[in-house]
Amino acid sequence: MSEPIQVPTADAAQLQRLQWLRAELHRHAHQYYVLDAPLLPDAEFDRLFVELQHLEARFPTLVTADSPTQRVGGKPLEQFESVRHRVPMLSIRTETDTEASGALHFDARVRRELGLSVDDPALEYVAEPKFDGLAMSLRYENGILQQAATRGDGEFGEDVTRNIRTIGQIPLRLPSGVPAVLEVRGEVYMRRDDFEALNASQREKIAGGARLEKTFVNPRNAAAGAVRQLDPAVAAKRPLSFFAYGLGDLTQRPEGKLWFTTHMQMLQQLRQWGLPVCKLVAIAQGADALVAYHARIGAQRDSLGFDIDGVVYKVNDLALQQRLGFVTREPRWAVAHKYPAQEQMTTVLEIDVQVGRTGKLTPVAKLAPVFVGGVTVTNATLHNEDEARRKDVRVGDAVVVRRAGDVIPEVVSVLLERRAEGAQPFSMPRICPVCGSVAVREEGEADYRCSGGLFCSAQRKQAILHFAQRRAVEVDGLGEKLVDQLVDAGLVRTLPDLYRLGLTSLTALERMADKSASNLLQALLDSRQTTLPRFLFGLGIRHVGEATAKALARHFGTLDAIMDGSEESLLQVADVGPIVAQSIRTFFDQAHNREVVEQLRGCGVTWTEGPPQASARAPLAGKTFVITGTLPTMGREDAKALIEAAGGKVAGSVSKKTHYLVAGAEAGSKLDKARELGVAVLDESGLKELLSGST
Ligand code: IVH
């Protein structure tokens, strides 16, 4: 006898959670789709959605027709006309596994559904970026753009034709010979540089008193806001772009012929008809090629001109697509494979104020650990008092943290509706939290600085770390923990104290074995033979970075010449302006700084000095460079160092002031921008020629 099937029943707490999830998801979907004002980061919304899906899967009898899991989401705004999609606008299944295995799962599923065995050849796919914008359907009738509609709930969208017509990239008319009815599906998005420029101008308007202008959290929200603008004149001022990636309604070709038999042919045809198709779409043979594509695009993600949140894989053969068909609202022949989210929600545990080498006080939000952009983040800088005020981050707040690429994590926004009552606004301390000296903010400066100088142990520690770093005098193994110990134990007060350390005092420190102590002493001995630029940089003179230190060393030849150089003579050095010259002078005018230098020399720190090269060629003086893409043999840092050594400057973004763009393989938006602005573009060998002064 078989057991009766057990239908699990939910307990009261599960029922309550289910209802809460539905209400929350409805509310946030409305905020997101209808009001363009999301209150949660996408990853948090997705998490709630998945939790509801899981609960409903466990208790299928509790699924209701109006559950957020049962529709695509997004009621049309009342003000726009509602449009019925003749071919529904579907969504795609998202592979939640952000590892390479996500691609393998998809390929395995497709092969199984097609009844293929391991011996059958690899399937052919098209791989595309997953653009982070909003889906759009463009209806062309006899080649004329008649209607543009948002996805809405997949069946009914909103008629946003007037706004979409303002997008220059979208053709209003197609060449002759196109299908009588052609519905192009794709993504409206905002390029990152356009987004930055838009936000900058919004901020200016706010500063000018126009209170109604708001800044946007990210390009997707800005794009969505523009598309749903009721006033097309306003929409026209918001720079939007478009990529086509699919089709909706389509008139068949006469005489039973097909327009195309593969997805790739379709994209190429759309491109020929004048629609923008992303250059990054590619054919991928089999699962391994999908994995490789995912990795390749992932590596480029942060340098693309637009946001993507993953890649999309599609079976290339349209006949196979048809055979595979759909499950509910998702095609079986496509999948979205995401990258780790770059925004996550977490809680502010504390706001600390850190003291830097030059005494700068930086407020830092200490966060409940959160995995974002591929790493666990526990700190996010709030930069300075003004920034902290503008964002109004308070202890206990739920915040959205963003970490993209290697950029330091940032607090993007505060979830005000979750703020606890009585949360206190942050205020910058007026005294140094480490040494108690007065903190001052000079006029025109954004930062407070501790006035304690080397009396402040935080500044001392930072000064020692700066001196000991690899790019300066390089004391191998002298890291943050050790410096903390040395300073806190009173063994090191000034840089020369480092060279007076002995085995006995070191081994007296906690957790310091004989071996580590003698390693440190050896590293200190080794560090004494250095170079003038490294030593100069290691002193930590404000505004004297590596490049300036090199230029000074080359120009003057000896340390004494630099220490005694007048402001005028310092100004002769490439890249040294009045502020830097003054800072160098001030540093060496202080007796205790000269004393430090003398003592270091006394401890055996040495370098070779050369003749002054006051007339040294600085072939790139006054020229500004931007480096992008991968250069064939040089690392970007190498290229930067060479340019700076030749008197040039390296900036982060292309503007009208850029003289040269050095572009390597897979150069992205910066290259486009340079071409647009008519900036000269060099490859690596072009740069080398320029450096040798032959051009
Ligand atoms: S194909 C039937 N391709 O991601 C397949 N979608 O749910 C329809 N998206 O609503 C979508 N880039 O807004 C496709 N290369 C791409 C895409 C893409 C972004 C968006 C689109 C869609 C959502 C997936």
Any overview of this molecule?
The protein has 695 residues and is of the alpha+beta class. The chain contains 25 helices and 24 strands. The strands form seven sheets. A five-stranded mixed sheet has the order 2-13-10-3-9. Strands 16-15-14-17-18 form a five-stranded antiparallel sheet. Helix 24 links the parallel strand 23 and strand 24. The chain is globular and about 90 Å long. The structure holds 2-(butylsulfanyl)adenosine. 2-(butylsulfanyl)adenosine (IVH) binds next to strand 3, strand 8 and strand 13. 2-(butylsulfanyl)adenosine binds next to strand 3, strand 8 and strand 13.
Write the layout of secondary structure elements.
Blueprint: H1 12-34, H2 42-58, E1 82-84, E2 94-95, H3 101-113, E3 124-131, E4 134-141, E5 144-150, E6 156-158, H4 161-164, E7 181-189, H5 192-207, H6 219-227, H7 232-236, E8 241-250, H8 263-272, E9 282-285, H9 286-300, E10 308-315, H10 318-324, E11 326-327, E12 330-331, E13 334-338, E14 343-355, E15 361-372, E16 375-381, H11 385-391, E17 398-402, E18 410-414, E19 439-441, E20 448-450, H12 457-468, H13 480-488, H14 495-498, H15 503-507, H16 514-527, H17 532-538, H18 546-556, H19 559-564, H20 567-571, H21 578-589, H22 591-602, E21 624-628, H23 636-645, E22 649-651, E23 660-663, H24 669-677, E24 680-682, H25 684-691
Parallel strand pairs: 2-13, 21-22, 21-23, 23-24
Antiparallel strand pairs: 1-6, 3-9, 3-10, 4-5, 4-7, 7-8, 10-13, 11-12, 14-15, 14-17, 15-16, 17-18, 19-20
Helix pairs in contact: 1-2, 3-9, 12-13, 17-18
Bound molecules: 2-(butylsulfanyl)adenosine (IVH).
